[in-house]
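Example A, followed by Example B.
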Amino acid sequence: MPGIQENAMPLLEQAMRFRMARQAVLSGNVANADTPGFRRRDIEFQGALQDATQRLERTDPRHMGPAGAGRDGDYKLEVGPRGTRPDGNAIELDRELVELQRNAGAFQDQAAVLSRLHVLRRIAVTGESR
């Protein structure tokens, strides 16, 4: 019987790759906070989640198969509306900084879970916790 680690580790790794890509996009928003006409960008999580879950392996012929497979880093980029400032910029710096912090926190949580799964795997293989 397959364990949770078989599916959890690749999904956590994919989630962490998504967080890194999103961090880069959000950082770009902060960097362009004073660029005239710049529109806010973000990455759609549902698309990334769907891509990751579609790569799951079928273990029984009665299971539903994937409709299509996406590549790592192939996320849907969302572009926000035009800004209301006189220069047309749509960046709200406070909002971007909060989103950056939330994204970084989610990455740290996922890294902690992945680390714990590695420890559990090592314990299962070697029988030692250290």
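Example B, a separate protein, is given below in the same form.
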Amino acid sequence: MCRKEASIIINTKDRISRLYVVLKALEGQVDDSMEVIVVFDGCSKETLDAFFSMHFCYAVIEVISVTNVGRSSARNLGAKRASGEILILLDDDRVPCKDFVKMHIEAHKTRCILLGNRKDVHLPEPVLQSMMSSEEKLRDFTENMEASAVTAFDSHDKLLRRILFFRHNPIIWILFYTGNVSLEKNDLEKAGFFDENFKGWGYEDLELGYRLYKNKIPFVKGVFVLNYHLSHEISVTGMLEAALKNLRYFHTKVKGDILARFVIFLLAAPLYLRIFQRDFIRSSVLKKQAGKLDTH
């Protein structure tokens, strides 16, 4: 296999319109020293047919998992297929800014893990669909993303990063979110790749970040290495329970590290609260419905 300078790895699950915009935004940024790998994680025939009808000015390497194996396994499939010395992990709904790939690569002149920035852009699905058939609309969007973007201001992607990003931070690993991050493939191999025991949503990236931190790899903040998150509605059905299960598993892996165990407890606390609130509301609604039935 011919070695490349960098591999851009994207895993996806039936979000073809967003994936199309992301891949189009990489045009002009990818040359022969790089490769783009898309892992189709249990995608439908309709998604695959739509993708194979698309055309890009660079070759896309497809890795197809017939069954949905989940984020950890999908990332590993892409990473193990990659021939790049640098791995750039990108989500299928994160549109890269101009010179995104170049900035990631340049950061690795010295060994590091580069953490990029994110802003949110809200586009209804019909608008995304229209971009798939109109190069002009797509070009207008990608050239003017900043005008419609809002700074991501939530505990995971902005505020927490600003508060916690300082030199020799012992919990810097909680900033390792794989929507916009790069690292050397050799470092990922030494860390043991993503732990595939994480199932469903959440925290497989932070746990890998913890192992990379323990391997003493410097974390670097790429302030201008920006991508634009195409925000969308998220169904939380089953997500909270899966996230808690993953956190409990993560907790078992850091025995002896009191600080890490405390951080995981802090991450779990709001999830327990949300589940309590959800179940309390459900119980109240059921009681009201039962009361109405008793009166008839």
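On Example B: The chain has two domains: 4-233, 234-296.
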